[in-house]
């Protein structure tokens, strides 16, 4: 028995570090971000979730940092012990030349002739290729990577780049509604990549993406007057999990920026896509049967216009309840977002019903109409906007922006309120904000099954299958705003 004791101790240590993977009910490939061999990728979008134009010398705005751990001790259980300080190396899966691929560059069997000079199609095929390099075999499906998503909210209406509710439209002049300093305002950013490496202690791993939208800026001179984004990931081998440290700064030229860390579908559409993507969700969570666990530590909030999402879930189904099929004229992206910035205004109220969903359904199943000012929890909602192609919308209603997705969209933005407490969500403005780091376990499936989403009368209710789950902020039209946050322990649990 004395001889067996070290073996039992080693097995217990393995389970503590990696979990009992055989009985796991996680939907993600890297539950809790605890896997030593990291898989993380980067994508940048313009206002309508496309590329439009690549930044000079940057290639297509898709990149990946994926590696496994190699050790001379890899046949010994001692590799999981924290007192080993040497002998490890990182075996990277993606080369610098892979990450620099861009329009005009051929890659046999990867980039089609149709995509060769089309920045939008090139990014699609490059992401699929990077996903194949990073792919990890698993059950029930293989998976590829966590996704860092960066989006520029500038829109040049004279560019002709964005469709309206999925329909191609000619350039038009609409000054003032959307930020744009003139021709070129929808550009892609500079992307710098610090490939993950072992630090001097032989045990700590760190890597990063960063950059700016001001293409001529010198980041060595500081960030005054320019935009900036950064994501740094760090972990000790065999200990704990990855911590992703985010920063986002806007500027007068780029006042509307978004930065998220996403768990996306491993195949098919993710939230906001109309093409094949790659991600972390080896099983797609479906309402009401899933929860999300994460630890969030917000260092700086990003100012009063930072719509910081404790959680944002995205999916796609048609107004008749059928799944999306790539027809952008009838597909509709659906989003539900919990904003935890305490400075966020409550636009939904009895005097502004157009900003409220038609119904609220309580946890016990009781449903109240938005005109019931005694029972409807107006303060639980920031704003609701309806799909622009909905044919039977209840008036009054505010339509969603018709240009910022490849297809129409429907958005329901929530605020901390007691009605969400039964699902584990924040109940008071300020919960989980700056100076109040928390580990959350959110009954996202239960809540999302009761939220109002538009559907044509008499049609079969859509299956609410969510193809992206993400955390981060959208700083909406604010110069020189700075947000900073740390995210760890991210997991999607099937219940």
Automatic annotation (TrEMBL):
Taxonomic superkingdom: Eukaryota
Keywords: Signal
InterPro entries: DUF7705 (IPR056122)
Residues in the signal sequence: 1-19
Domain DUF7705: 26-494
Protein name: DUF7705 domain-containing protein
Organism for this UniProt entry: Microthlaspi erraticum
